[in-house]
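Example for tutorial group B:
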């Protein structure tokens, strides 16, 4: 199988890091996309202001793919354009005609709404956890232990990452907390042991491979258990209310198990083929890791403090879901880290990657929410439903699953996708004679975790790994498309027949 990489040099990354200024088309392409769409008339059934909003959203997505500016800057520009043009792109004539309604105030509230999103701050917390591991040296210590035990082969390290996520997934209903807050801070320390640096050609030595395996693995485990992803629980409740079907924890697990096993086996090895690390095997590295551990000596007080705080966070994430929000847990632990001087306030405010990601994801959440707000998502779903007449039950099911899965390109939150699209898809399915509603409902719900692989903003941990510096923009979008097709293909070919057998 051929790899994605271009060129002949082993350290050459897939996307050439040529300064953006040499490519003025990178800046012009998002503008051209927005203007071209805006000049087209709105499709039948869609309000003109909703079409204008979609044109701006499409321009932002093109900008994120080409990166003429950092992602956070593109997001801020996008929401600002919408806020300025709100009377023409965000609100319809009926809203504008309401007594006392002021678009200028309402648009500002909308533009800032993403900064109050809990998942956005949980992502920010994951960066703080990673910084704490680095500042105390605990991350390096754990990384060295992993390398000593499994570092002879890069592939085995990939499977170790997937295994760790799988063990945590039944008990952690936030994949951002599980992968972004627990797995990432540890594996972030591994590449440096192999002289693999972020935002550098050496990233491909091993760092890029490990980061992609981690994000792809958590997308699979997020679909594996109903308690592995918060939107899974939301989906079960919606299915109960809309389709009058009860789905148990065991029923969910058994129905998805064959797909999960296959994908968890495939993720490290397929990544190894398509996005190969340069360092594949080294008998000397584990010996060196053992020597480094000896030089580090026993754990410091700050390492012990951090370990205790991390265990406290993990316990609250696993067992405290009904008492305390996952984001509140992260903010509490960050506060305790500041109080115990695990890291300083200066460390926190100078973490550019964390603040950039905060701005980037907060603005994307607002923009994606705007698509639902202006009615674009409902119009799109209704348009699909109108074309389903005459389809066989099986073909209709497959088409609707594919539509549900790939429309996640329009969302920056799986919760938002579930809320906006799942009830509509269930309603469409229930109107198709002969369709197995239990199988159909489960099939839609099972894709919620898997669709997190599609884009750098698709699910909570995505911005964390994207912001690591080991996954260049072009690489992420290409790998996301390839693995998205792989995930949904395995699901349709294995999952649907399996569910038909087990009933």
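The residue assignment follows.
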């Amino acid at each position: 199988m051929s790899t994605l990489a271009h060129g002949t040099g082993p350290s050459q990354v897939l996307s050439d890091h040529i300064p953006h200024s040499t490519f003025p088309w990178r800046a012009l392409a998002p503008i051209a996309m927005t203007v071209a769409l805006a000049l087209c008339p709105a499709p039948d059934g869609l309000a003109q202001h909703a079409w204008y909003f979609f044109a701006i959203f499409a321009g932002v997505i093109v900008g994120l793919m080409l990166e003429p500016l950092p992602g956070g800057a593109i997001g801020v520009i996008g929401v600002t354009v919408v806020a300025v043009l709100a009377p023409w792109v965000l609100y319809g004539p009926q809203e504008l005609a309401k007594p006392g309604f002021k678009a200028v105030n309402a648009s500002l509230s909308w533009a800032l709404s993403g900064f109050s999103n809990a998942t956005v701050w949980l992502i920010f917390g994951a960066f703080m956890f990673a910084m704490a591991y680095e500042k105390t040296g605990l991350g390096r210590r754990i990384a060295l232990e992993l390398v000593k035990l499994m570092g002879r082969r890069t592939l085995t390290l990939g499977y170790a990452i997937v295994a760790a996520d799988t063990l945590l997934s039944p008990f952690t209903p936030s994949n951002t907390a599980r992968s972004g807050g627990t797995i990432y801070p540890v594996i972030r320390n591994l590449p440096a042991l192999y002289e693999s640096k972020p935002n550098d050609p050496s990233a491909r030595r091993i760092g890029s491979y490990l980061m992609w395996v981690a994000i792809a693995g958590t997308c699979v485990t997020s679909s594996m258990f109903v308690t592995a992803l918060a939107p899974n629980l939301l989906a079960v409740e919606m299915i109960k209310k809309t389709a009058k079907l009860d789905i148990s924890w065991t029923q969910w697990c058994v129905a998805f198990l064959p797909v999960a096993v296959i994908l968890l086996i495939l993720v490290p090895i397929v990544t190894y083929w398509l996005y190969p690390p340069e360092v594949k095997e080294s008998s000397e590295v584990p010996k060196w890791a053992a020597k480094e551990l000896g030089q580090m000596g026993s754990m410091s007080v700050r390492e012990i403090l951090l370990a205790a705080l991390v265990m406290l966070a993990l316990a609250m994430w696993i067992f405290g879901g009904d008492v305390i929000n996952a984001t509140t847990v992260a903010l509490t632990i960050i506060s305790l880290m500041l109080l115990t001087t695990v890291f300083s306030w200066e460390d926190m405010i100078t973490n550019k990657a964390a603040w950039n990601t905060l701005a980037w994801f907060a603005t994307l959440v607002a923009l994606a929410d705007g698509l639902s707000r202006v009615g674009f998502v409902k119009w799109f779903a209704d348009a699909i439903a109108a074309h389903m007449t005459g389809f066989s039950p099986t073909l209709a099911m497959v088409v609707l699953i594919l539509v549900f899965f790939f429309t996640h390109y329009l969302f920056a939150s799986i919760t938002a996708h579930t809320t906006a699209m799942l009830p509509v898809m269930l309603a469409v399915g229930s109107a198709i004679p002969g369709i197995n509603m239990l199988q159909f409902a489960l099939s839609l719900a099972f894709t919620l975790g898997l669709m997190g692989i599609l884009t750098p903003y698709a699910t909570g941990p995505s911005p964390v790994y994207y912001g690591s510096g080991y996954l260049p923009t072009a690489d992420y979008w290409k790998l996301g498309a390839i693995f998205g097709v792989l995930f949904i293909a395995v699901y349709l070919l294995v999952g649907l027949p399996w569910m038909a057998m087990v009933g």
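The longest helix spans residues 473-502. Compare this with the pattern of hydrophobic and polar residues in the output above.
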